[in-house]
Amino acid sequence: MPLSPEQEAEIASLRTQTRPTLRPVSEGVERHLYLAHPVLDHGFVRVIDYMGDDAAICQAARVSYGKGTKSVQNDEALIRYLMRHWHSTPFEMCELKLHVKLPVFVARQWIRHRTANVNEYSARYSILDREFYIPEESTLAAQSVVNNQGRGETLTPAEAARVLHWLKSDATRAYDHYEAMISQDGQQGLARELARMNLPANIYTQWYWKVDLHNLFHFLRLRAEAHAQYEIRVYAELICKIVADWVPLAYGAFADYRLGGVTLSGKAVECLKRMLKGEVVTQETSGMSKGEWREFEGLIG
Amino acid sequence: MPLSPEQEAEIASLRTQTRPTLRPVSEGVERHLYLAHPVLDHGFVRVIDYMGDDAAICQAARVSYGKGTKSVQNDEALIRYLMRHWHSTPFEMCELKLHVKLPVFVARQWIRHRTANVNEYSARYSILDREFYIPEESTLAAQSVVNNQGRGETLTPAEAARVLHWLKSDATRAYDHYEAMISQDGQQGLARELARMNLPANIYTQWYWKVDLHNLFHFLRLRAEAHAQYEIRVYAELICKIVADWVPLAYGAFADYRLGGVTLSGKAVECLKRMLKGEVVTQETSGMSKGEWREFEGLIG
Amino acid sequence: MPLSPEQEAEIASLRTQTRPTLRPVSEGVERHLYLAHPVLDHGFVRVIDYMGDDAAICQAARVSYGKGTKSVQNDEALIRYLMRHWHSTPFEMCELKLHVKLPVFVARQWIRHRTANVNEYSARYSILDREFYIPEESTLAAQSVVNNQGRGETLTPAEAARVLHWLKSDATRAYDHYEAMISQDGQQGLARELARMNLPANIYTQWYWKVDLHNLFHFLRLRAEAHAQYEIRVYAELICKIVADWVPLAYGAFADYRLGGVTLSGKAVECLKRMLKGEVVTQETSGMSKGEWREFEGLIG
Amino acid sequence: MPLSPEQEAEIASLRTQTRPTLRPVSEGVERHLYLAHPVLDHGFVRVIDYMGDDAAICQAARVSYGKGTKSVQNDEALIRYLMRHWHSTPFEMCELKLHVKLPVFVARQWIRHRTANVNEYSARYSILDREFYIPEESTLAAQSVVNNQGRGETLTPAEAARVLHWLKSDATRAYDHYEAMISQDGQQGLARELARMNLPANIYTQWYWKVDLHNLFHFLRLRAEAHAQYEIRVYAELICKIVADWVPLAYGAFADYRLGGVTLSGKAVECLKRMLKGEVVTQETSGMSKGEWREFEGLIG
Questions:
Q1: C151 contacts chain B (CB < 8 A)
Q2: Is A70's pLDDT higher than 80?
Q3: Is A223 annotated as catalytic?
Q4: Is the pTM for the entire model greater than 0.90?
């Protein structure tokens, strides 16, 4: 269980302290505030704060004096128009602040999204907990033979068992030595900033991560997608659910135009037009490479 | 007066609609929400939304589960430490969203601060109002003779009167023609995106501007400073007051370390050390250029 | 003519001063260096510097020790793969630095692309030239009746003549007064930072603008597109030609996947699949709004 | 030795291939191009490309048509003025592209500087080499007792020996298991994206890192500073030397105003003024906290 009783009590206490505000309030995301949604074996996602709601997107797009809302239907049509025509600035007017606990190798992928604000737990200053991501057997997959950066078949039980044994015993030993190095019991103790180098990439870290809705959608589009690594995708999928509760109209437009949408090249569009006129188009007559044709066939079923 | 009765009524209505939230609330900035604080002759600054407070800065710095507040004294010491040592990420955890009405030539300076989110009223889509910035006579100053990008003495009354006459009559004529060009009365009417090119840089525009506290402090440090152009400085000074109400501890640290602080070169530090030992240092013996020495003397009185 | 004889001579001189370098060189863009390509009536685009070429994109994608080039075919396939799968970082490894002269109202649109570096000619410090954008009669179009932020029919000759008269005479008068205000002949002269407010938005400004290739492609995709305002589109179209000479493989992929490509919503993809199976789909049976259906029909012809 | 003979040969070959260019050339940095400067036990820094030189900074600040250089003295005075007055955009006009090999725990600190472009060697796609950072005994320091995120005394020989033994044996074992997990010899082999989680934070990674000079100075100011962790500081110090060769005037201004400069709070300035008038000021009469006073005493000697 990721939280201590003290932490659970702190969170429960925060959830009782309602205060009045004149700001826009999204009931949907208020229900999530402070709660730790579990992810993987020791990770979580907590909503710490948010700014704005669907109406705030419209209000900013209209640079209006009041709420910017005429009706929910108008707002939905405007939001879908903005999404369809790649208007990014109104979506930047909303912010979400999360507290995330995640394995270091996931954090390394995540941090590559530069347009966010981050405060990470400091292993120069503090001591990391003894918590490592150990995959479930069902997620232990072999290297893909078609995709150089993906997974293929699930490992055999014997192969999986061997992998899990190594992951657990190496992590345990590395952490034992980390603790022994920094111990101040009968010795000075190695500096934390040095001792941390012995810890493997499946140890958990945590951070506060704040991002605007436009950049969050960009993150979700890349990380909630089928080709994203499973271990970051489960975080992205959970955040998708939170965003759907927070800004349902914007999330609906995102789901239709981005998550569910496809981008076609000029060549692909030409092929489509020919196919719609009844022509049979093959890879050879398409002008596309084999890889592009395979992806094109995947898109249009 | 910048606002219409309908706009005033919309704002008054918003200020009555308190709702409960679990988020951190800053009483100090709630008092400002939605109100139009006047700036220059037709401009204003309105707080539309905010995220976070002083405690949120500490909470993020500590990556904590609860409020992150042990005591106000602890929070103040931590915030001052963070400011003194150039830690930027905890301050990025707070956001302020403003609605600003401002002359175009001020907007052109302001927008150079790239790390903010902006939605500007579109003159391609909408018709601009007939409102121009006409300076008060007391602010009509001559080109500085010592600073190539500053102001010197106030103009003579006759010179000022001539300037004001031109500013008013040229703006009036330009706007008359703008209106006549886009009019659809007996003609098609020129596209708005073209007609706007006839309008001078003292016409007012407006935008929603959202920025995190770290980048806001950077803006205020440069624009609330004595060398900033008066017409943007008055906006910055007003925003300083709002920020002081919103996050008083962070603003206090900013006022002491940034607004009131000075940066000295290595050469200047060497001179200071010599002076503190009783040596009389002059520009000639300082190793500094005349310009640097003049600025150094200004700093240490 | 936009350049003075002195400026022409400076540029000609720069074009004679070849020096040896160990860096990658793109012959295609060397041909453009320093030359002023005219745009609109007084504007121009000049290439001042560049970093990288097509091979540099591949080299960065491979994090390689050498040139990263195995063959041009390999490079092209890799670049098309990167573009198709939204890999942005390898394209960020190339940079282009331009000197651009452009009307202020175009500059105001342009600057909204925040991920670039800009040094603008300062009208606080310097005096602007007497140069205004006066459209050709053929580009003077009426407000569109279908698109609130676009142009429709060309104006009648009489209406156009009236518009041109106003644009010219208002600009002339505004500049005359600008000059008279700042004149130090028999008076102190108004500060430049104030006098500039009398100048209309069709006056020319200029800046150095530096951007990486990924963000440049984003700019070009939005501004070389049919719905962009004509006055910025002509700049974007010229830059497209320069980029095609500089990084022909990357530009080819961009032209196919972005400029020539389309993005379809999930709903649109479902319709396409039904149509490819022979079903007749109409707006009523599509699940799309009228606006979306009209745009969808436009895309698939 | 970090490079293979093939890599050495590739680099040597690149250094023979001079080509003519019309762009500005900095002789000082051309001497570094492609060469691997060693850092730590297996790391390096290689200059891959650059854009601009000292004159380009001035040229951009002046938005000039030609070289922007009147004389080296003028350029130096202008560059020092720009640095002193926090003008950032002219420095953004220069770019440096590096190939860096560095331990993962250093990479994690480095990447927090978001305003740079990065392509990292992918451990989802490729297999990492068996190379780990093992500190020299002289750098193995205890946790500081005054600074919670720093180092204190050097460890005793016995304590150091124990630490080195653990670092080496744990890394060896982790890598052995990593290799065994991904091996396709008699098994499918675990996906690389999973197997990498077993590797400790002292394994080496590598990336292409491109940054403009303004943001590079910000990085160097924080990371070449005495409180930075030793393992990142040695990279920053090496890059300082490269930058000094590339843009000597800009580096000189940076060294004086930033690296060698100090920032004083308003309170500290008041104390200084009193001290310069002969008053004896103590912490008690300074208005500063004990921590601030200790730092203030450190600055002014």
A1: yes
A2: no
A3: yes
A4: yes
Residue spans of the domains in chain B: they are: 5-132+203-259, 134-201, 266-300
A299 — phi, psi (to 5°)? -70, -40
Of A47-56, A66-75, C114-123, where does mean pLDDT reach its minimum? A66-75
pLDDT tens-digit series, residues D228-277: 999 999 999 999 999 999 999 999 999 999 999 998 999 999 999 999 99
Q: What percent of chain A has pLDDT over 70?
A: 98
Residues of B in contact with A18 (CB under 8 A): 20-22
Using CB atoms, which residue from A11, A21, A25 is nearest to B65?
A11
Backbone angles phi, psi at C97, to 5 degrees: -115, 120
Residue C215 near residue C113, CB atoms below 8 Å: yes
Q: What is the CATH number of domain C5-133+203-259?
A: 3.30.1360.170
Question: Would you call D262 an interface residue with chain B, using a CB distance cutoff of 8 Å?
Answer: yes
Which one of A23, A31, A80, A223 is the catalytic residue? A223
CATH architecture of the domain A5-133+202-259 equals 2-Layer Sandwich (3.30)
Between CA D152 and CA D155 the distance in angstroms is 9
Task: Give pLDDT tens digits for D61-111.
Answer: 999 887 755 677 789 999 999 999 999 999 999 999 999 999 999 999 999
What b/e sequence results for B128-157 when a residue is b if at least 16 CB atoms lie within 10 Å of its CB, and e otherwise?
A: beebbbbbeeebbbbbeeeeebbbeeebee
What pLDDT digit, counting tens, does each position of A271-280 carry?
Answer: 999 999 999 9
Helix extents (H) in chain B: 5-14, 27-30, 54-62, 72-84, 104-110, 157-182, 192-195, 213-223, 230-246, 248-254, 266-276, 283-286, 290-300
Q: What is the Cα Rg of chain D in Å? A: 24
CATH class belonging to B5-132+203-259: alpha beta
The minimal CB distance from C7 to the residues D25, D65, D210 is found for D65
Structure tokens that stand for B22 in this block: 């679990």
CB contacts of D273 in chain B (<8 Å) are 300-301
The torsion angles phi and psi of A95, rounded to 5 degrees, stand at: -130, 145
Neighbours of C160 (CB within 10 A): 19
Interface membership of D182 toward A (CB under 8 Å): yes
**Chain D partners within 8 Å of A184 (Cβ):** 143
Describe chain A by its helix, strand, coil percentages, rounded to 5. Answer: 50, 15, 35
How far apart, in whole angstroms, are the C-alpha atoms of residue D48 and residue D39? 17
